[in-house]
Amino acid sequence: MSIAAGYLPFLTSRKPDTMQFSDFRNLCVELQCRGVNIDTAYPGRTGGAGPAEGQTVIIEGRYLNIPTNSWYVPMSPYRIENHKSRWRLYKKKDCICDVVFPRKPDFYNQVAPSGLSLQQVALLHGSDCFASTIYQDCLYWNTPLQCRFCGIGLSLENKTTILLKDPDDLAFAAAQAQQHDAARHVTLTAGAWPDEARGLDHLCACVREIKKRTAMPVHAQIHPPRSMWAIDVLKSAGADTLGLHIEVCDTELLADMVPGKAALGLQAYTAAWEHAVAVFGINQVSSFLLAGLGETLQQFSTMADTIARLGVFPYVLPLRPIPGSLLADSKPPEPAYMTDVYAQTAGILKKHKLASKNSKAGCVRCGACSCLSLFEDETIL
Ligand code: SF4
Which residues line ligand 1 (CB under 6 A)? Predict the structure, then answer.
């Protein structure tokens, strides 16, 4: 999941002026499950395989990342067409609303101290999130332990990025993005490192350099470490929020979908979540939960409640089969199922006093890949 743009934080959950809120929310859920066909006149469209299977669009002021390049998209009733320099969203023959594509960030045109194009160093995600995969590989990639929905190695194979991001390059790019493109927070992710200690050192170096040159809060995503001390080290380096992603809600599906994570065991995640909340605080630790992997709604809600009870934010995402991944031929979940998942999770968030608007940095704050915040609006006091 990736993408682009520049705006105010939390505008993502505002009520649109030109459409009933319930219609707008249903539209967003449908678009993320069905995808959208884009007029070939759009110059930024990326075709073919690879993890760039989506596009960010702005609808009624909300930044939404939508599938555009997966096998199921041509079956979607939605398409975006160009009309006299404006873009319009259609459902079959009905025009629904105007949409806007985010402008290309200025920092993409600049060059890092190492000579790399900054677009190869990081991207602007959602409205204002500076995001980078600092290690574009994974211990489990191309092994039997690979997560079945993952596409981390594909960008490297397509040569759209590099294996390891240099902390200096990253900090330079972050400062440019903050200055020229209104970036307001940072997401740093990586696959599982073959050498955990080296990975932690590199991640901490990236966080420290970014914090030296910008005032942006930083979100780091890691796997449960062997020693909980690693979490304290990351906090000391300057990280503001932490992602520890179990992703799968049904414990029986874990071994099938995420065998590497299953080998670590749910207990490793629970221990890491508990320690991370003690270090980073309630609402500042999150876990992706993917819907549509074969779990039931009850299983999804049970997992969401289990982690929310610990103070961990369950960040809900529909499965998006990535071309080239092991689940490339799978179907995304039905919009009706996603609506139930979002509504139940929003109730769970309210029960445990968690809210996406209280997250300091990262995917929960960005929200472009999920419609969860649209459901929180009705449940947050
Ligand atoms: S939610 Fe996360 S992955 Fe999605 S666009 Fe935002 S920062 Fe990127």
Answer: 1, 3, 65, 125-126, 129, 131, 187, 363, 366, 368-369
